[in-house]
Write a structure and sequence with these properties.
Helices cover 0% and strands 43% of the residues.
Length: 157
């Protein structure tokens, strides 16, 4: 069993590093992403956010007009994806990337990060839970401990 990772011991600004973990994303039991070549960002009070190389995404993505800005990584581009089991269902703005990440985050240029849903996300075979709330995109696994930002009453942390 991996050692526990307390989110209150993660740094601010975030640490970006390669992770050896095996990441998979399945939608209606169909594999849509699979990699052992990802990065994770570790930030105080947040579970890890994973960044997957674009070559590991097994379905086409379409660029969204939605944008956001991260104080650490810069301007984010969002992506849409069509359900492989129902081509009339398009999920919008649940995947993002950084085309011109800020200094210190250049390694994740064009890598993609997925919110943990509507698909199922796995880390080393363990199905993850989404970070509380609908703003942050961290993945919670059984080795994560400590109060996590995102739920009611945590906005000012």
């Amino acid at each position: 069993m991996p050692p526990k990772l307390n989110v209150h011991n993660f740094p601010r600004p975030p640490l970006l590093e390669k992770t050896p973990r095996h990441l998979q994303i399945k939608w209606n039991n169909q594999l849509i992403a699979d990699t052992k070549d990802a990065y994770w960002a570790l930030e105080t009070t947040h579970p890890p956010t994973y960044y997957i190389p674009p070559g590991s995404i097994l379905l086409p993505l379409t660029r969204s007009s939605h944008k956001s800005f991260c104080e650490w990584k810069g301007a984010a581009t969002y992506w849409n994806i069509t359900n492989p089991a129902n081509d009339s269902e398009e999920v919008k703005n649940r995947i993002w990337s950084y085309e011109k990440p800020t200094k210190g985050f250049e390694s994740i240029k064009d890598y993609l990060s997925f919110y943990a849903g509507p698909w199922d996300c796995y880390v080393d075979g363990e199905k993850v839970e989404p970070q509380p709330g609908d703003f942050y995109g961290g993945w919670v696994t059984s080795d994560i401990e400590g109060p996590i930002k995102g739920g009611p009453g945590t906005w000012g942390w």
